[in-house]
Amino acid sequence: MPPTSDAKLAEATVVAIKIVALSTIAARFEPKVLFQALDELITTIGDSARGLGGHVDPGYRSEFLAFFAQAAEGGNANDNAFMFANQLQEANAARLIECGTNSLPTLALRIGIDSGVICLGTLQAARRPIRGYFGAAIETARLLAEMCDPHALLISDATSDGFKEIDANASNFKTRMLDLPDSSAPRAMLYFDTLEFEPDIRHRASQLLSACAGSIRQEQRWRLTLPDSLVVMTKFGAAMAYDVSRSGIGLLLTDELAIGTKLGLTVSPRDERLQGRLQRRKLSELVGVVRTVKKVSDRFLIGLSFENLSEEQKDRFLAIIFESQRSSSDRDREPVA
Fold first, then answer.
1. Alpha-carbon distance 147 to 124, whole Å?
2. pLDDT digit string (tens) for 95-126?
3. Smallest Cα–Cα separation from 47: which of 98, 94, 87?
4. Would the pTM of this model clear 0.70, i.e. be above it?
């Protein structure tokens, strides 16, 4: 097959937009109703991006990508990408409340932003050409979106370092240290809560999202694609990691434990490289407190919150586990209901 003739490289800022718990919400609505809600959301995303010189690719099922070229006229691309993402989250929170009040799908968003060189061109598929976008900035933006909270933004250092008019030292920017792929050391990412100064809107949006998504938890948990690859040693024996969240981990044990039980945890992954990364970051010896207990077949799913990790260490642990699972499987991790 001949190589793509129109492929080219470009400096761009990538905004990855992830819909929270879409698969759970889809099971609760007629396809036509959900289609209309998604169509309205895509229209809003496209109109907002174009207004700031961006381009949107709606190629993923529950995820959209917006691109802002560095050479585009009309301002700095990094600033424009941030303004687009911030305005989108603010507008979507209001739209979410309106939809939820009228018993329509409430589609909350998590957004990640990164900047770098991307390749764009046409893939010559068997029957029809497909427009494609590739690059580390795209994958990093997607990973940041996965790790972000609803109604918020996670912004890479590559993007924030290029801000011109945006004051990254403002009080509503928070720093989170994340250990991302291909990084020799943790990177300082900016966390921006678009509803920090709108607590009533945040509370109402969270209530409606929970109601729409049924049993969705307030804190998202992600089921591990290869749970048997992550073994955790406890005083009750070896346990398999079942899911993770930003603040804790779910383990499968044969013993039923009482709520409030404190456990020492030794994370012993079968992958020696993963074990080395955790040990270097001092993340292999943990302390957890039992918060939830649920019977699963002949075992118990024990939900623990980390007691000995700082907020930065929690982010770092989650990023390392995400990447180890991503490199072993191409399946998407949907939030566990």
1. 33
2. 999 998 888 899 999 999 999 998 877 766 65
3. 87
4. no
